[in-house]
Amino acid sequence: MSKLETLLNEHGIPIKNCNINNLSAGLTQLYSHDTTAVVIDPECLLMPTNAWFDMISSLGRRIPVVVVGKNQGGNESPRIRHSGSSLTWLENPSAEDILSVLDACGAIGIDFRRVIRDVIPIYNPQVPIHMLQNHGALSLLVIDASSFRKIAIEYGSEVYHRVQECFNQILYDQWGTAGCFRTTDILCRRTVQSNSYYIFLEQSRTAQSVPAPGVLEKLADRLAIRIQNAFWREIFVDRARRMMPDCIRIVPDISIGFGTSIHNPCVDPMELIEQLLESSMDESRVQAKRMRDRQRELMQTLIQTPGLLEPHYQGVFHLPQLTKEIVSSARQHKSVRPLKDILFGFESLIRVKGDAIDAIYDVAGPVYMESRYLRPDVLFALSHSAKVGLELDQACLQQAIKNSGRLPGILLLNILPRNLYNIDRLRPIFKDRKNIMFEVSESEAISNLELMMKVRESLSRSNMLIAADDFGKGYNGLEQIIRIKPDLIKLDRSLIQDIHNDLPKQAFVGGLVRAAQIARSTVLAEGVELWEEAEVLQHMGIDLIQGFLLHKPQPASQIERDLDLVVDLTEKAA
Fold it and tell me: Taking the model in full, what pTM does it have?
């Protein structure tokens, strides 16, 4: 008994042996009503290739046909290949491979399907043909992940493939879970390299022959929400367990279309299937637009609705006077009070009030992103894609000024270059607030250097300062920074992390410090989390320090209490 026969017998699947070289007996079995699939080994055939190929091509329009061998004309996969129609070619397969294909084609029945799967199978036209003809109708979901192509362009093929692997795992995790698509639904990938996936829905989902109006749309929305949020979770998990590459900070857009086709014996089933796939892909584009509209509405709501954006403030401190004892005291008391004497100022960092957003979500319909993922970098990336980045930036500036009235020292405000170009129009936002320093991120391209230098001069006349943020991270070179002559240069955290263990990094940062000193710019090291890092930076002559080692961002009210800046109204009245 062959390995395949043994495996099928273990699953209780009946198997018949026939040889189509014997046309009389073989064809009788091939066209028997209880034959649900055919597996052919061409090496065992005595007839000419064209003859048996014509026969199985015709047979494949009726039932699944698996050919064990290499398809000389195929070019899709090194392992699973298809002919132009509905045949499945398996080159050097195991018995499990053959069983998996028969399973996907519906040839062995739902009761025998395996729940544990190794890979997402490649689309085989036999799957929808079988389901359409046997159920009289076929419903489908199409998952469009074509946005992955941008990742290949921006980050390279290795990152692109890792994102694909992560997405495949997410689909596995959703397959068969409550509220998602069922275990008995058939998931497949259009081609080996494609970013389109098909889910053929089992007809047992509904008592009717086709889903009721609106059912598939709700299913597509629900699945899109679950996939999007599962993707976001991957970005936020611990680095050691994260499948998503570190460089991916924003989830690519995923959209899902849907459709149903009714069997018509007067129309070629392949034509019906192709029409269904095309119309379902069109529906996915409709959902993609709806998702973008929801993102834009969310950003507009955050910008215009009072109380949704709340600034937190992180302290910036003079490094030369810092000691390990001061650090230990601040960390022990979880307070900025022990650092009061070396305080330089505070940077405003925007936060989203999750509870308030969730309350809006409850009445807003489908939500493709949970509020807990709206951290600042995500927030601004979404605002740029929704084309309201400048408006969000202005709202953050307004909130920062509004809530920082009693905070001492310099107030550092992040600002986009395009808003800084129009700072005169935005001056009403700042009112009478003194000691303001604008941080221009070096990762945001300064497209008009001459205009930026004019703005720099205007700020100087108004006693406002300017800082080059994230230096060493993005687009602008040292020469450009020196020409702008910022009052302060902030070294990106990537240059600071583990600097005490990295001699080349120390040499590089040391050169930047010397260049900044020549340009008469103060140097701030951000993202410091270890005393050992601070100690090395201190020896290098860096002026200012910022990071979780000393202070985590807090609301202004908490900082004011720690620094005894809250006025007791009863004492004031007395």
Answer: 0.73
